[in-house]
Design brief:
By secondary structure, the chain is of the alpha/beta class. It contains 13 helices and 16 strands. Helices cover 31% and strands 21% of the residues. The strands form three sheets. A seven-stranded parallel beta sheet has the order 8-7-6-9-10-11-12, sandwiched between helices. Strands 2-1-3-4-5 form a five-stranded parallel beta sheet. β1, α1 and β2 form a beta-alpha-beta unit.
């Protein structure tokens, strides 16, 4: 039996995928083989020796100690694209409410309660203070054309916007998902200088921290509206507050409220609602569960943030799955261990991701003792033998 621990409430459509003849699933599990998590912080948790995988039911993994997991041979999965439609819809909403001053007008309308027959006249008199532009015909810049960015770009194009997108890591597959109406540019410069709306969809890294700052804002249109539904740290919030105060920006919409931006005129701060839909939670739960099941039962890795994607069917007697450091000459040493015990290698796949690598050997013959031999090879972190 494998033990699966849930750190947050995971949708039943995901946890129900675990065959109860093979798995025990619950939030009281001790010494788990895998963990399903949403937002709970794991940085102070002790990661047990039995732990094989952690699956985040969402895209970001800031709540997981990824480096520590890599050192211990724990695969960290996320669920890219599972919440993409939910975020896309909120981004489109963000553009609309930042343009038409919808939230301000709703708050103002509430003040008319009790005015009786005067309400109609007061509405007609006061509505002019909430005038704002339509988005059709305006120029939208999308920074990052992954699962969410591509959906936003395509939707905005269908709404009549002129859309340009930048992503230095755009894959061929990603490009195929883009509407032909979306113009691809190689850098953010054109977006900063020409767009009426800018939306950010990139991961938070040392390179992207504060990518929206006083210097980049200074190159933008004075009526620019910036949307951040990716990560709070991508934007220098004080620079945004200053720009809103001095007329250097029209609006800032963020899904990451902070004390700096809450209550500031021109800021629409939402309480991290990007993936807060039942459909998104279901999609994330199902994807996370399937990733864990496929890894535990078959040794396949898909959508890991710390190890490469490797998928290979078992055609022989066993699959030997090795997590190891990405060092020169490792394959030669590992395969030598296999041949020394008389095993025949039918198939092999090995890929790396930065400092770590994953090698899978499909073998025929008696595999007794082979795992320990491979564990003794320099650079090996963990070895699993999977059989039919």
């Amino acid at each position: 039996m494998y033990n699966i621990k849930t750190l947050n409430k995971i949708a039943a459509c995901g946890t129900d995928l675990f065959d109860r003849s093979k798995y025990t699933v619950g939030d009281e599990i001790e010494n788990p083989d895998a963990i399903l998590v949403r937002s709970a912080s794991m940085h102070e948790m002790e990661l047990g020796s039995d732990l094989l995988a952690i699956a985040r039911a969402g895209a970001g993994v800031n709540n997981i100690p990824v480096d520590k997991c890599s050192e211990q041979g724990i695969v960290v999965f996320n669920t890219p694209g599972a919440n993409a439609n939910a975020v896309k819809e909120l981004v489109i909403l963000g553009m609309l409410i930042s343009s038409r001053k919808v939230t301000q007008s709703i708050d103002w309308a509430k003040t008319l309660k009790g005015k009786g027959d005067e309400v109609g006249k007061l509405v007609e008199k006061g509505k002019s203070q909430f005038v704002g532009p339509e988005i059709a015909g305006k120029k939208l810049g999308v920074i990052g054309l992954g699962a969410i960015g591509a959906l936003v770009a395509n939707a905005a194009a269908e709404l009549g916007m002129e859309v340009i997108g930048a992503d230095p890591f755009l894959s061929v597959q990603g490009a195929l998902h883009l509407s032909e109406k979306v113009k691809y540019v190689k850098s953010n410069k054109e977006i900063f200088e020409t767009c009426d709306y800018i939306t950010i969809h990139v991961p938070f890294t040392p390179e992207t921290k504060n990518m929206i700052n006083a210097q980049t804002i200074a190159t933008m249109k004075k009526n620019v509206r910036i949307l951040n539904f990716a990560r709070g740290g991508l934007v220098d919030e004080q620079a945004v507050v200053d720009a809103l105060a001095n007329g250097g920006m029209a609006a800032y919409v963020t899904d990451f409220p902070s004390d700096t931006v809450i209550g500031v005129e021109g800021v629409v701060a939402l309480p991290h609602l990007g993936a807060s839909t039942p459909e998104s939670e279901d999609n994330c739960a199902v994807m996370a569960a399937n990733e864990v099941i496929d890894y535990i039962e078959n040794g396949n890795i898909l959508n890991s943030v710390n190890l490469p994607n490797v998928s290979m069917p078992l055609t022989g007697d066993a699959k030997i799955c090795i997590i190891h450091k990405n060092i020169e000459g490792f394959i030669t040493k590992a395969t030598a261990c296999v041949t020394e015990v008389g095993l025949n290698i039918d198939n092999m796949e090995s890929r790396s991701k930065k400092d770590y690598a994953y090698t899978v050997l499909d073998v025929k013959g008696s595999y007794d003792g082979v795992a320990q031999k491979i564990k003794d090879v320099d650079g090996v972190i963990s070895v699993r033998v999977i059989t039919h």
